[in-house]
Amino acid sequence: MALKYNPLFRLGFDELGTGGGSGSSGSITPNVGEVFFPDDYRRFLNYIARYSSDEESTPIADMSGLPVWSVRFTRLKTINNGMFKRSHLRTGEFPAAELVDISAFEDTSLFYINSPSPDKGEWNTTLPNVKEIRGFAFAECRYLREVSFPKVEKVGTYAFRNCTGLYKLELPICKDFYFNALQGCSRLEELNLPMANVMYGVTITTNRLYGCTGLRKILLPNMYEIADNCRNLFLDCVALEEIDINSMKYIPHTFFTNKIRLERANVSDARYIGYAAFSGCQSLTWFVNNNATEIHPFAFHKCTALEELRLPSANNLDYMAISDMYSLKKLELLAPGIIACEYSATHGSICNNPRLTEIKVPPVWSIPPTGISFANCSAISAQSVIDMAGALKPAATQTPIAFDAAVCDRIPTATTTMLQSKNYNIVRL
Hints:
With 429 residues, the protein is mainly beta.
């Protein structure tokens, strides 16, 4: 039997034979003579502004394109694939939901998710127990401002793609995160993933923060697994000022190249620093690394603001690894010995650092038979050369140590004699 539309529209779904839900029309007006049949709940929802259900499932799995703007599902555990896609949804309550499926909220009008601020009020959507967010779940939600998921452990690809208004994202226990989840989130300034531990190495596209031009601070303190095809991860992050990825195994080639606003970098556990990894970071003033043994070509090239560089474990210095650092005053090479070092009269591993004054080495030190050079480093103090001479172990063959002429003129005769007795030859550049 057909049911005619009730103008007051305080009808529950039970009255229509569909079970479990209730709704109100708000200001939505039906067509004259509109008729509903017992199984025609989708047409019925065209005139519902708010919808509530206490069932574990919903009589309609797809509310996409509907004008419903507020929902409450007290027992629903899975928000289905595309359930609210392109609907007018602005707010909702989902206290039992554990999974947000593919495109579940894509292109809706949500503003805040799990915001603790009481002033968010009617604009706040609650999803307190969600554990997994799948691909495109909140994509194209351009009104979305703040997001907090206290229990989410996994975020899929493009989950927040083109959420251009998003400026705050909190995922305190998320372990698996596809970085392209944030593609196009140009307003987001801070990315804090304290528990993330895998940077997927499948393709470059899954590991790039496309269009995240506003990111200033990135905290990934537990990130340890990474591959070279992730080297474009921060390519678009032109506003980056601070990074903390202190447990990452190594820094890929060009990882932070030309991040001209980057001031602070904590990569303390990286085992090697790749080709041009920090090249062109003109604002870098604070750098921490404890374990890198390999410093690849151009690693710190033109880090023009860094005054002190401490490398406690570096024993392999490649071509121009520490070069054109115009503010560098102190260099610490604290590994027991250098096993490989580019020697050149003009472009060695350490060159073109005009303010470099102090070079600190361990009490017992060695350099490779090919020697070590400090080309265009004319400010090196006599005391630094004396300390190096005293620390160097005797060489098996004649080994060159090259300095600028200005530095050679400051070296005491006794130091030159000591080096010669240890089989080292001072080369005047």
